[in-house]
Design a protein that fits this description.
Strand content of chain B: 35-45%
CATH superfamily of one domain in chain A: MetI-like
CATH class of the largest domain in chain B: Alpha Beta
Number of strands of chain A: 2
Strand order of the largest sheet of chain A: 1-2
Order of helices and strands of chain A: HEEHHHHHHHHHHHH
Structural class of chain B: alpha+beta
Helix content of chain B: 10-25%
Radius of gyration of chain A: 23 Å
Strand content of chain A: under 5%
CATH superfamily of the largest domain in chain B: P-loop containing nucleotide triphosphate hydrolases
Distance between the termini of chain A: 29 Å
Bound molecules: adenosine-5'-triphosphate, magnesium ion
Oligomer: heterodimer
Low-confidence stretches of chain B: none
CATH architecture of one domain in chain A: Orthogonal Bundle
Radius of gyration of chain B: 24 Å
Helix content of chain A: over 70%
Mean pLDDT of chain B: 93
Number of helices of chain B: 8
Largest sheet of chain B: 6 strands, mixed
Shape of chain A: globular
Mean pLDDT of chain A: 90
Shape of chain B: elongated
Structural class of chain A: mainly alpha
Number of helices of chain A: 13
CATH architecture of the largest domain in chain B: 3-Layer(aba) Sandwich
CATH topology of the largest domain in chain B: Rossmann fold
Number of domains of chain B: 2
Order of helices and strands of chain B: EEEHEEEHHHEHEHEEHHEEEEEEEEE
């Protein structure tokens, strides 16, 4: 096979990426660093100077910091259970994967239907006599309820993606390693932490990076459940771009999200690094 | 004290029966070798003793304690897996130390034992490597070292030297035997290699199709096979068999010759190739192939239309096509019941 062939075969995809991804991406970078054709950092100072920046930033971080670990633990638990099943495994996987087929906005709307003033939660509480008239849960007085609703919706919506990746990863680990650990005295928990988890690192990397990136881009679920009451980075990007018509600041927000994504991806890669020769 | 008693252990995989009611007792500190063709159930039996497989029937006792309901780690065993199962995410050092760490052995003691067993298996220069950076034979030695480092009462080894070159295997074999005898370990050792079996074993259990056909001292297994299978499986080349016709009164007609044998109406005559020597009277054999092996010559011939092998002194010159007369050593002749395939005493 000629040496150039693989590169030649990859050329169309690479070109496509260059033209439709890196070019617009470059434009956004430029946009964030210019104002009226001049190079400046004013977009960033405007962004950080606005009172909504700090809450948007911290809300996004907190959402990620709560949702992702909870999802990781749930996904690992569910995957371990699924892994043990002898029959009905794929059926169960399909069921778990159903929320994956729903867009994030639809997921937000489903949870809105539960939490809103005429929603299921109110009906149930009313039926059981816990409340005597419909209550507004998702108001600005109850920020933490909005936050909680978003957390729930996100967990419901996006745990399956991690689980699917982890189940696939667990399937790649030969059972002989767990057996050897068992013979050499490891308890069930020790087998999980000393054998399964380390051997799962490549899948964990994929699952975590994917999920963290998704978490930094949280938008539609927040919009559906809280509007702009609970500011997040992506929501602010949207606001500046379309409400305030300030593309420069919107681009600056986009750069912040990008910076966070890159930084956390690197952290994950570093923490879950598998030395050469230590792969399965 | 770690005597192993296996009582009526059977194992079914769905409709397939891998083990049929196996009974076996392995004395404390005994070196028991399981020998048998591929797929006869050696690994399955070992895994049942280890607790990695539940028997469909029967009991397993180790050191006077019934263990078949106990998890592997409660059985006081360590094991060398047929496919090594060396952890890829740990260095060689940490692999060997794995069981010791689980047992909460102190750091210095872990260090001492890892180094000692690594030295024994000639892998002390590999301690910092990962399993992905080892050859198959090196990986196998790591697996053996990991099992030895535990200094267990019972060690189960599934073809632990199969991947080593002949010379290294010879050396490791001797070292293993020494170490295991010194540490008073009860050993069950699976192998395909008859020479290895003969040289290591206190007793050999010959398995065939999920049965233990014979469990006895190596020379017994070799000299007095309890069944036709044992004779045909052990020995290289294996035993020769010839049909025999009863002449009555314990005399048998075999390939034109008359031999004294057991009472009865049906029997098969058997003799080992090295228990034949050229003579004036005896079985007339038409030579087909002559293979000089150095000290001996292996002659493949036909006797009464049956393939027949003899190991003869290399001084004698034999050519293919020649007809020679081979006399069996009388007290080495064995007889088998063609019906049950068992030896006739
Ligand atoms: N998990 C299983 N499911 C179904 N059949 C199995 C299973 N494990 C083993 N067997 C069958 O049981 C029989 C015995 O297998 P086992 O691994 O014990 O053979 P072995 O004597 O160790 O062979 P080898 O020398 O090739 O390692 C084989 O016919 C095998 O196909
Ligand atoms: Mg085997």
């Amino acid at each position: 096979m000629p040496r150039a062939l693989p590169y030649l075969l990859l050329l169309p995809a690479s070109l496509f990426l260059l033209v439709f991804f890196f070019y617009p991406f470059g434009l956004v970078v430029v946009e964030s660093l210019t104002r009226g054709g001049e190079w400046t950092t004013e977009n960033f100072t405007r962004m950080t100077g606005h009172w909504k920046f700090a809450p948007a930033f911290w809300n996004t971080i907190w959402l990620t910091a709560i949702v992702v670990p909870v999802q990781l633990i749930m996904a690992l638990t569910m995957a371990s259970v699924v892994q043990k099943l002898k029959t009905g495994r794929s059926g169960l996987l399909y069921i778990f994967a159903i929320p994956l087929g729903i867009s994030d906005l639809a997921a937000g709307l489903i949870w809105l239907a539960i939490f809103e003033q005429s929603g299921f939660l109110n009906s149930i509480f009313h039926a059981f006599g816990i409340i005597d008239r419909p209550t507004l849960y998702l108001g600005y007085q109850n920020m933490w309820v909005i936050f909680l609703a978003v957390v729930l919706a996100e967990i419901w919506r996006a745990t399956a993606i991690m689980m699917v990746i982890i189940v696939a990863g667990m399937g790649l680990i030969p059972k002989e390693y767990s057996e050897a650990a068992e013979v050499f005295g490891a308890s069930r928990w020790q087998r999980f932490t000393r054998v399964t988890l380390p051997l799962l690192r490549p899948s964990l990397q994929t699952a975590l990076i994917l999920r963290i990136l998704m978490a930094f881009e949280v938008f539609a679920v927040v919009m559906a459940l809280g509007g702009t009451t609970l500011p997040v980075l992506m929501g602010e990007t949207f606001q500046w771009q379309f409400q305030l018509q300030d593309r420069g600041v919107a681009a600056a927000y986009a750069m912040v999200i990008l910076g966070l994504s890159v930084a956390f991806s690197l952290v994950v890669l570093r923490l879950l690094h598998v030395p050469k020769g230590a792969r399965i | 004290m770690a005597e192993i008693v296996i009582k009526g252990v059977a194992k079914d995989f769905g409709a397939f029966t891998a083990l049929h009611s196996v009974d076996l007792t392995i004395a404390d500190q005994e070196f028991m070798v399981l020998l048998g063709a591929s797929g006869c159930g050696k690994t399955t039996l070992l895994r049942i003793i280890a607790g990695l497989e539940t028997p469909s029937q029967g009991e397993v006792w180790i050191g006077g304690r019934r263990v078949d309901h106990l998890p592997p780690r409660a059985r006081g065993i360590s094991m060398v897996f047929q496919n090594y199962a060396v952890f890829p995410h740990l260095t060689v050092f940490e692999n060997i130390a794995f069981g010791l760490r689980m047992a909460k052995v102190t750091g210095t003691e872990v260090d001492r034992r890892v180094r000692r067993t690594a030295e024994l298996m000639h892998i002390e220069q590999l301690l910092k490597r990962y399993s992905g950076e080892l050859s198959g034979g090196q990986r196998q030695r790591v697996a053996v070292a990991r099992a030895l480092a535990m200094e267990p009462d019972v060690i189960l080894m599934d073809e632990p030297l199969s991947n080593l070159d002949a010379l290294l295997r010879l050396e490791m074999r001797a070292e293993l035997k020494g170490v295991l005898a010194e540490s008073k370990t009860t050993t069950i050792y699976v192998t395909h290699d008859q020479v290895e079996a003969m040289s290591l074993a206190d007793r050999i259990s010959v398995m065939n199709g999920g049965y233990i056909v014979q469990a006895d001292r190596p020379t017994e297994v070799y000299r007095n096979p309890a069944a036709r299978f044992v004779g045909s499986f052990i020995g290289n080349p294996p035993m020769n068999f010839l049909p025999a016709k009863s002449e009555g009164a314990g005399r048998w007609h075999v390939a034109g010759q008359s031999f004294a044998g057991p009472q009865g109406s049906a029997a098969e005559f058997a003799i080992r190739p090295e228990d034949l020597h050229p003579s004036d009277t005896g079985l007339s054999a038409e030579v087909r192939v002559v293979e000089p092996l150095g000290p001996h010559t292996l002659v493949t011939a036909q006797v009464a239309g049956q393939p027949f092998r003899a190991v003869l002194d290399s001084d004698r010159h034999i050519t293919p096509g020649e007809v020679i007369t081979l006399a069996p050593v009388p007290d080495r002749i064995r007889w088998f019941d063609p019906e049950t395939q068992k030896a006739i005493a």
